[in-house]
Design brief:
- This protein has 164 residues and is mostly helical.
- The protein contains four helices and two strands, in the order ββαααα.
- Strands 1-2 form a two-stranded antiparallel ribbon.
- A hairpin with a 6-residue loop joins β1 and β2.
- The protein is rod-shaped, with a radius of gyration of 50 Å.
Length: 164
């Protein structure tokens, strides 16, 4: 029981519950108590055989106890490592939330800039003059083509530009 005290039902006295390692150290004191209890099957074992068997059982119990103590320390280590991982995950979540907010801000700004660029393209397109019906790649001799084509289209004569 917790607190190191146990109630013994037969005697009604308070007995100190021993830790596992303390019980192993006091095995010789525990042997007479175990030997005085009645056994259901008694097969003409000598005292030395019984003592040898008890020693073997106590050794096995000791091995199991050491394994359990090793497992307990491993559990403590795993618990600490798990807490550390949980803290790292919480830190990553905080970083991800901050990055998500920054991405949202950048997306809103980008959308605003795209709208502005579209508005500027629309305005600049209104000031352009479109000539339909001209062949592709006319840009090379656009000046000469316009001097030949515009007088015919409008029915007026233009004076050629002066070249110095």
């Amino acid at each position: 029981m917790p607190g190191g005290q146990s109630s013994h039902k037969n005697s009604g006295k308070q007995a100190r519950q021993l830790l596992f390692s303390e019980a192993l150290l006091q095995t010789k004191g525990a042997l007479p108590t175990l030997a005085t209890q009645p056994q259901a099957t008694h097969h003409n074992m000598t005292d030395s055989d019984q003592e040898s068997t008890m020693d073997h059982i106590l050794q096995e119990i000791s091995v199991v106890g050491r394994r359990l103590e090793g497992m307990a320390s491993a559990m403590v280590s795993l618990t600490a490592e798990t807490k550390s991982i949980h803290m790292e995950i919480a830190n990553f979540q905080t970083c991800v939330l901050g990055l998500e907010q920054q991405v949202s801000t950048v997306e809103a700004r980008t959308s605003s800039l795209q709208d502005r660029v579209q508005e500027l393209e629309d305005r600049s397109g209104r000031d352009n003059v479109r000539f339909l019906g001209f062949p592709e790649n006319i840009e090379e001799d656009l000046h000469g083509l316009l001097w030949d084509t515009l007088p015919r289209m409008t029915g007026t004569a233009f004076a050629p530009p002066l070249v110095f």
